[in-house]
Amino acid sequence: MKRIAKFALLLLLAGLAQPALAQSDSSKTNTPEPKNTAPKGAAEQTMPAPATEDPTYVIGPGDEIYINVWGELELTRSVPVRPDGMISMPLLNDLQAAGKTPMELAKTITERLGSMVKDPRVSVIVTATNSRRVYILGKVGRPGAYPMIPGMTVLQAISSAGGLMMFGNGKRITILRTENGKQLRIPFNYYDVINGKSPEQNILLKPGDTVVIP
User: Fold this and answer.
1) Cβ(177)–Cβ(208) under 8 Å?
2) Other Cβ atoms closer than 10 A to 94
3) Whole-number mean pLDDT of the chain?
């Protein structure tokens, strides 16, 4: 009799549990999934890391820029600045980029797109500063082209290139610079500068400068 009573109690408990389980499964099934409210194409727009965050940086030929038009994947792209300073974009064809800051270029694109795209939101990022280079030639450890960091001096440039080689003539270094279509030759005495005799020779370099170590 005790076994029969226990079996009946188990059946009763199982019957009471069925509605609760059914209600739990129903609540899981009927729970709505969250909707994606982001603008069309927003998930695909991954902003690249900028090569410079200087808001006063002036775009030049050879630079790479990323143009992001929010919600418009057909217009969002990376483009090179051509040697003539122009870039090409869908709808806009060619437009001047060299000589502008990223914010100025974004404003220009926004204005040009205004008649074709509703409320365009444009941002411009410089991803490669290829126009800001200096060139170190001659008897240094690693001659070649180097990115010009802000405030780079002649000594810093020579150091970046591995320093003078054993037979490099540090007394007759020349900085070649083009200004207003004319080439300037600026003398630099490495030993006088490092010994503190002529610190004024350690000038700030400009984009396109060439340092020649004979």
Assistant:
1) yes
2) 11
3) 83
